[in-house]
UniProtKB/TrEMBL annotation:
Protein name per UniProt: 14-3-3-like protein d isoform x1
Domain 14-3-3: 6-246
Transmembrane segments: none
UniProt biased composition (Acidic residues): 238-261
Residues covered by region (Disordered): 235-261
Superkingdom classification of source: Eukaryota
InterPro entries attached to this UniProt entry: 14-3-3, 14-3-3_dom_sf, 14-3-3_domain
SMART domains (alphabetical): 14_3_3 (SM00101)
Family matches, as PANTHER family: 14-3-3 PROTEIN
Length: 261
């Protein structure tokens, strides 16, 4: 693939993002990955945005269908519950296919081709996220394996991230999402709180020295970290650090990188 064709695919991805045609956006980025796994920062962000916008509505659908299925089952409406279950399973399959696809790209193309620590941290965070999304709905051995893969990916990213500045937004985004994994998936509430607090405290003294280029991205992630810390602290006070429901709507995570238009 020559540079002209590559630039055109990036243009198509940006256009499809604005048109909210995320499958076509994903396809444009896949065409680049299939030729070369080494992506620029812009291409990396476009890839992340495309997949995130594909899976977000499916994660939401699964939660809605699960809620309705449980309600109808409790009310004794087994026929209706079974029909809702079919919709839930269909959404789960769609989400599973998307997650497996991007995880495969990360393992086989993106991580082996990464040439700097920032890229590696980005991809390990991304893999950790998609394994976590699988862990939200898979059962038994599949769930356990997804949890294991998610934790391992986040930990690898954290280790490599030590080579980056404490204010690096990709490092902070990894810290944010790993703490969400610890809190929501593993229910290690105190560990999640301490990990997020350490990331926040290490970055805070250096905010004033940030360049204009990274300031907004860094501040965004730090605000999300602070929101989680405040929410979790209130939970500790109210419930004495008792286990929460898995579906914690107050917990924030970094969904996607900011796109520079």
């Amino acid at each position: 693939m020559d540079q002209k064709e590559r630039d055109f695919l990036v243009f198509v991805a940006k256009m499809c993002e604005q048109a909210r045609r995320y499958e076509e956006m994903r396809d444009a980025m896949k065409s680049i990955i299939q030729v070369t796994g080494e992506l620029t920062t812009e291409e990396r962000n476009l890839l992340s945005v495309a997949y995130k916008n594909l899976i977000t509505p499916k994660r939401y659908s699964i939660r809605v269908f699960t809620s309705f299925e449980e309600r109808e089952t409790e009310n004794g409406n087994q026929t209706i519950a079974e029909r809702i279950r079919e919709k839930r399973l269909n959404s789960e399959k769609e989400l599973k296919d998307i997650c497996f696809e991007i995880i495969s790209f990360i393992d086989e193309k993106l991580i082996p081709s990464a040439t700097n620590d920032e890229g590696l941290v980005f991809y390990y965070k991304m893999k950790g996220d998609y394994c976590r999304y699988l862990a939200e709905f898979l059962k038994s051995d599949e769930k356990s394996k997804s949890i294991e893969n998610s934790g391992e990916s986040y930990k690898k990213g954290v280790e490599i991230g030590k080579n980056l500045s404490s204010t690096n937004p990709i490092r902070l985004g990894l810290s944010l999402n790993y703490s969400v994994f610890l809190y929501e998936i593993l229910a290690n509430h105190q560990e999640a709180f301490q990990f997020a607090k350490q990331a926040f405290d290490e970055a805070r003294p250096h905010i004033d020295s940030l360049s204009d280029k990274s300031y907004n991205d860094t501040i965004l992630v730090m605000q999300l970290l602070r929101d989680n810390l405040n929410s979790w602290a209130k939970d500790f006070e109210a419930q004495g650090d008792e286990d929460e429901d898995d579906d914690d709507d107050d917990t924030e995570e970094l969904d996607e990188p900011n796109q520079k238009k």
